[in-house]
Amino acid sequence: MEPVPVKEITARVAVLQEELARKDVPLALIRQAADLYYYTGTLADGWLAVSPAATPLLLVRRPQARLLEAPPPWPLAFYGDLKEIADLLGTFGFSTQGPLGLELDVMPVGFARRLQKIFPQMTQQDISPLVRQQRMRKSSYEIGQMRRAAAILDQALEEAPRLLKPGTTEMEVAAALEYRLRLLGHQGLVRIHTWNLELFYGHVLSGVSGAEAAYTDTPSGGTGFTAAFPQGAGKKKLAMGEPISIDFFSCVNGYVVDQTRMYALESMPEKAWEAFRLVEDLYRLFEDLARPGVMAGDVYQRLWQEVKDRGWEEHFMGRGADRVSFLGHGLGLEADEYPLLTARFPFPLETDMVLAFEPKIFLKDIGMIGLEDTGRITPEGVEWLTTTPREVMVLKGQD
Predict the structure, then answer these.
(1) How far apart are the C-alpha atoms of 105 and 109, rounded to whole Å?
(2) Band of the pLDDT at 218, cuts 50, 70, 90?
(3) 398 Cβ partners below 8 Å, 6+ apart?
(4) Helical segments of the chain, H only
(5) 140-395 is a CATH 3.30.365.10 domain
(6) Domain residues of the chain, as ranges?
(7) Which among 17, 107, 280, 353 is least buried, having the fewest CB atoms inside 10 angstroms?
(8) Tens of pLDDT, residues 290-328
(9) Going by CATH, does the domain composed of 6-135 fall within 3.40.350.10?
(10) Cα distance between residue 134 and residue 338, in whole Å
């Protein structure tokens, strides 16, 4: 296990303390897994108490032994019942008067109500926007972890041409790539912030299954092979003459990257090639537009205008009511971080934001045509972290 540098963690918490002071929040309790890891470098069943006026305190129910053997940079206090944490906070000098900062965008209502009984003198305040905005811009350490994740994803995709054969199922290809990724260092979990958004870490879709919409807010879906999880690779067999997409996450030390690449056995329909040429042009346009200081909404609108001008709006980012409202999403400890490449995202792009750009076109009776890459915003433009050649790899196949 590779520890997060202590200087990195203390710097992150210092920023949060400044924001809490600016908002007059005397106490915040951090619980959500990605946030807890971000501010402590560890995970536990517990809370990080943060105050502008006190040293942070990690309150832990379990695992106690592991944290005693490898303690985080903050003092530890152990509890057995949630009702004990108010007294523990008082013992360590935390104020329990005024607003109580919580991650209310994801915290279950039941949990929030229990905390209201434990801290009856405090009003609950949502600090999720503060945390998400802080995490939006990545440190050099974080970008380094994402480079590692991108490298193993590129390496795993080198196996794809060997796996893609007529008669092989989507699931067989997906399982082989997942196995390869785990051996290379994928941690086996991709965290999602959005409530009830369920994702595995890879979709292999071929032909018409690529145009199958998901029940989740994602462009491509696939059928899966059970009604309990109807997305991703299914039992469909690869066939010649149809587009095949491989859309995989990779995650190293908590940090996620995302990449989609296209393949075909022998050939694809001409309409699919036309769609792919549009995708390539959208990449070039995005690279021209994406600079620090530019509003994400302006980039989104310009890209959509290009699609409309060329007559492809019916097919872009889904079809009809199944169309999604974004062209890209931030990445970091979660796969749906800020910034969001949407019409109304309220913040400009900044240096060291990292996002996945994913223009995708859905053709009835043909499938999905698209690419996705993880890129870092720099003053000079986009630095792509995922580097597998951006092309349709046409492979020889035999029935």
Answers:
(1) 10
(2) confident
(3) 165, 166
(4) 6-22, 33-40, 64-69, 85-91, 109-118, 128-135, 140-157, 160-163, 170-184, 270-289, 296-309
(5) no
(6) 6-135, 140-395
(7) 280
(8) 999 999 999 999 999 999 999 999 999 998 889 999 999
(9) yes
(10) 9
